[in-house]
Amino acid sequence: MLGNLQALIPAFVLAGVLTAAPALAQTLAERLQSEFDAGGLPGLHGTIIDLGDQRLAEVYFAGPDERWGMPLGKVQHNPESLHDLRSVTKSVVGLLYGIALAEDKVPSPDAPLYAQFPEYEDLQAQDGRDKILVSHALSMQMGLRWNEDLPYTDPRNSEIAMEQAPDRYRYALEQDIIEAPGTNWIYSGGAVALLGKLIADGTGMPLDAFAREKLFAPLGITEFEWIAGTDGVPSAASGLRLKMPDLAKIGRLVAQDGVHEGKEVVPADWLNQSFQPRATVNEFTKYGYLWYLAGEQPNIVVIAVGNGGQRLTVQPAVDLSVATFAGRYNDRDAWRTSLKVVLDIAVPEAKRILGR
Fold first, then answer.
1. Are 83 and 241 in contact (CB under 8 A)?
2. Which residues form the Beta-lactamase-related domain (predicted)?
3. Helix, strand or coil for residue 313?
């Protein structure tokens, strides 16, 4: 699924007052280039590091890439390159759910999940499914059998099986109940597919169209791709492709409580709900509503992670955001590259600026 989940831990908490730091962007860019040239950042395709209004670094590299599993060969990445987000897509869907909820277009988290899918009356009637709430999908605690630990090249992987099923929503909903909802965290692209359908049905717009109008356009994101499955439905679990500067915009939006250029794009209350620990991933990491969490308020660190080394790490308290693209798809050590950018490069520089 994600390789070593312990690697999600950013292992830092920053606090302090932001001070001026001229000429840092070139310094960090040079360091990233040196690390890459020395083989210390294998597979890195690019990163943007923002601290407050300062762009500390923005760098791009060449390397083999894919488009949702299809090889693209060696790509010279640049600010205009679209890149797979893979499961970072899930966290973007979390933002979209909050926008739709504020417009009263989707059910509240405490609503029964199966009641939102009346077309599957036979599943609704099965014992125990009435206890599964929308919040259990948002926090991946539905209690249903699901396995994404297998490689995404393996048809037995639950997300791949869902994409190949005649009806992805029935596939996600019909899985066996293996424990009471809310008991344990079970990583599930199926849960996010269901949330994507709730957004599409509630707004009357395909997921990508809703994203374009309500999230991307307000941020000035004009070009993106949201890959659809064989049924023509955009994959809510992993299908979004963005440019690196545009992923960085989403990071800044999260860091600034959902506000962009003085306008609220994502309700701050929804972000607060999303960043409350609701499930335990491991002894170091919690899970909110489609975001990984490390540390505690007021210095919570929120993280979105995708196959291959895609990562968005945000610490709102100090307005720190680190966006990373990489091409180590289906490599269980892919997390090492993106985490090294955060821990060994971004955090020491941020601490220096903040006087820590």
1. yes
2. 39-326
3. strand
Backbone angles phi, psi at 58, to 5 degrees: -150, 110
All structural domains of the chain with their residue ranges: 5-84+242-261+274-354
Hey, CA dihedral for 213, 214, 219, 224, is it positive or negative? negative
Amino acid, single-letter form, for residue 69:
G
Whether residue 6 has pLDDT greater than 50: no
Residue with tokens 């979209």: 96
CATH number 3.40.710.10 is the correct assignment for the domain at 5-84+242-261+274-354:
yes
Checking if the pLDDT of 73 tops 90, the result is yes
DSSP letter for 133, please.
B
Closest among 155, 156, 133 to 143, alpha carbons compared: 133
Distance CA 96, CA 104 (A): 12
Contact partners, residue 183, CB within 8 Å, separation at least 6 = 141, 143
- What amino acid is encoded at 282 in this protein? N
Position 63 pLDDT exceeds 80? yes
The Cα–Cα gap between 331 and 323 comes to: 19
